[in-house]
Design goal:
By secondary structure, the protein is an alpha+beta fold. The protein contains 6 helices and 8 strands; from the N terminus they run ααβββββααβαββα.
Length: 207
């Protein structure tokens, strides 16, 4: 299919050779380790999805013992576009405590929100002009076992998405965060710490 060919042409052209080799061969590539305050760390990984119905590349946030905290499946459609086939939360075998520990250690940043920040970082890094997310109703039946249709689309709306053609949501290339100066002092400090963690994670991802 054209979209699959476009995706791998982009990956081969833009990603480092060693990273391309691991992904194309079906392996996983560890990208960056994230330090959490008062908790064990987490890391970012890329690999091909186990099933290809919703996309060609999985971006994963995992605990250090490889429990999935969140996942995002991407396809590079053309030179200026990335399509998000699905975003999912913790894996079925990931303890609730692991997710809670990540949120606490990142000062309130949810794993799926971090992955969306990383997708935007990826778009900026490669000069992409569009980020689109597939609406749940447009997805291949049975291809994804994440959120239901209403919950999935509500997530895209929280990310600033607007319904667009071909069953997609058009997402903004950047998402304005609430000013850190607003609210009570304790809330401001937590927000500042959260945004500092987000910035460090994006920098580590792009390195």
């Amino acid at each position: 299919r054209r979209i699959v060919s476009s995706h791998y042409a982009f990956v081969m052209r833009r990603f480092p050779a060693r990273l391309c080799e691991r992904i194309v061969s079906g392996g996983s590539a560890r990208l960056a380790t994230l330090r959490l305050d008062g908790a064990t760390g987490a890391y970012l990984s890329l690999r091909k999805p186990s099933r290809g119905e919703v996309g060609e590349l999985s971006l994963l946030l995992l605990t250090l013992d490889k429990q999935v905290l969140a996942s995002c499946i991407l396809t590079f459609d053309r030179r200026d576009s990335v399509i998000i086939g699905a975003v999912g939360g913790a894996g079925p075998h990931t303890p609730v405590e692991a997710v809670r520990e990540f949120i606490q250690g990142s000062h309130g940043l949810h794993p799926t929100d971090l992955l969306m920040s990383l997708v935007r970082e990826l778009a900026a890094l490669h000069g992409l002009k569009r980020i689109r997310a597939v609406a749940a109703a447009a997805r291949v039946a049975g291809a994804w076992h994440g959120a239901d249709a209403d919950g999935d689309d509500a997530f895209w709306q929280r990310q600033g998405g607007l319904p667009a053609e071909s069953g997609c949501h058009e997402l903004p290339l950047s998402l304005a965060q609430a000013p850190c100066a607003d609210g009570p002092r304790s809330r401001r400090e937590k927000r500042q710490q959260r945004e500092a963690f987000r910035e460090k994670a994006c920098a580590a991802f792009a390195a």
